[in-house]
Design brief:
The chain has 402 residues and is an all-alpha fold. It contains 16 helices and 2 strands. The chain has a two-stranded parallel ribbon with strand order 1-2. Helix 3 packs parallel to helix 5. The termini are far apart.
């Protein structure tokens, strides 16, 4: 007698056609928490620069190479972590990135000069740049198709949320304990969380489906997600093997798409440039105008808080009004709010309510427009190149490919 045939399970179809279980939501929350720590550590130097200026007797321009190296680290870390995520698993890559930027941040608490700060900033940037793409990949692959956009957007919005929480912490820690304590907190928290992820976070089921040696582990994971899968089942993931996932970026410049691609790249470049300018320099610019460190840190926190609300608000607006109006008028309003901040007088002894309000509005509009461009990219491109196009804009290594 021949052996009975084994059950074949298409993991992509199973997850996409099922409910978003409580366990899957928990896993999404864990990945999103990693991005909150990521957002904090991306912006932590901005909180510390005003204190470092006085302690090290350096100028703001001396920090320009340090800030640039942090962004270079992100640009290098993202493709490297993306390769590791595809080769060794999203879970391992995410945990490694969280541990790397945690170690880099906590080590920065012991540096005494710009050279050491620059090296550690580059390493921290590599970890921070690699965490977001792998966290986004995990949340997308844990969620069913109809909930995937929500899961990814909730992950991305955690970058400004991390900056907001970081600003609130910095406003209290810096005046009382100094910048070294802020770095110690900013490094110890993600290191502890990396241990939690190692203990609790499973690998992506879609990734496990492509590795027969991992099928028993995948069967246990799917059962925990609420799917009755035999322990000896075999797995496949047809959706993950589609040709769309391997389309060259050259396809984005084929006739009929070249103008849209060029326009989106330019828009993303200037929007992200303005956001990272604020992330890197806002507290230093405010303290240069005589504002105290606590208020300057609160200003960046409010900017990020505006970003969180902006992403959520523009999601609703685009649902009912489409993308053109909210993005066009949001961009114009963002530029106007930046100009208003430039023209507004800042004096150390004045009430800074209007300044903080302006930062809130600018953060709301800048982050709303930037995040909305992901949705626009998904709308502009046909199905055959949509996966490559959105992935290109959604990860920092896109700037390397540009």
């Amino acid at each position: 007698m021949g052996s009975p045939s084994r059950t074949v399970v298409d993991v992509g179809a199973l997850l996409d056609g099922s409910a978003w279980s409580a366990y899957q939501k928990l896993l999404t929350m864990l990945a999103a928490l990693a991005v909150i720590f990521d957002g904090f550590d991306i912006q932590i130097l901005a909180f510390a620069i005003p204190s470092l200026l006085g302690e090290w007797q350096v100028t703001r321009s001396d920090f320009a190479p340090v800030v640039a190296l942090g962004l270079a680290g992100m640009a290098c870390g993202s493709p490297l972590a993306g390769y590791c995520g595809d080769r060794f698993g999203r879970r391992a890559a995410l945990i490694g990135c969280v541990a790397l930027f945690g170690l880099g941040t906590i080590a920065t608490a012991f540096v005494n000069g710009l050279a050491g700060l620059a090296v550690l900033r580059f390493l921290t940037g590599m970890g921070a740049g690699g965490a977001l793409p792998n966290a986004s990949a995990l949340t997308a692959e844990f969620a069913p198709l109809r909930r995937r956009a929500v899961a990814v957007k909730l992950t991305i919005v955690c970058v400004p949320l991390g900056g907001m929480l970081g600003g609130l912490i910095a406003a209290r820690v810096l005046p009382a304990y100094g910048w070294r304590a802020l770095y110690a907190i900013g490094g110890a928290a993600p290191l502890l969380f990396a241990l939690v992820l190692w203990r609790v976070l499973p690998e992506s089921p879609r990734f496990l489906a492509r590795r027969p040696a991992s099928w028993p582990r995948l069967a246990r994971l799917l059962n925990r997600m609420g799917h009755a899968v035999p322990a000896d089942a075999t797995f496949e993931e047809r959706a993950g093997r589609s040709g769309a996932d391997r389309v060259s970026l050259r396809a984005l410049f084929r006739p009929g798409l070249a103008r849209d691609t060029a326009g989106l790249w330019i828009a993303f470049f200037f929007c992200l440039a303005s956001i990272y300018l604020v992330f890197g320099w806002l507290p230093a610019m405010l303290t240069a105008q005589g504002i105290n460190v606590a208020t300057a840190s609160s200003g960046l926190a409010v900017y990020n808080f505006g970003g969180v609300l902006g992403v959520l608000l523009w999601t609703v607006l685009m649902t009912y009004l489409g993308s053109r109006g909210p993005m066009l008028y949001g961009s114009l309003a963002c530029a106007a709010s930046a100009l208003a901040l430039l023209l507004a007088p800042i004096q150390a002894q004045d009430d800074h309510t209007w300044l903080i309000a302006g930062l809130f509005v600018n953060g709301l509009l800048a982050n709303a427009v930037q995040t909305s461009m992901f949705a626009l990219a998904a709308h502009v491109y046909p199905t055959s190149v949509r996966a490559s196009s959105v992935r290109a804009y959604a990860t920092p290594d896109a700037w390397e490919r540009c």
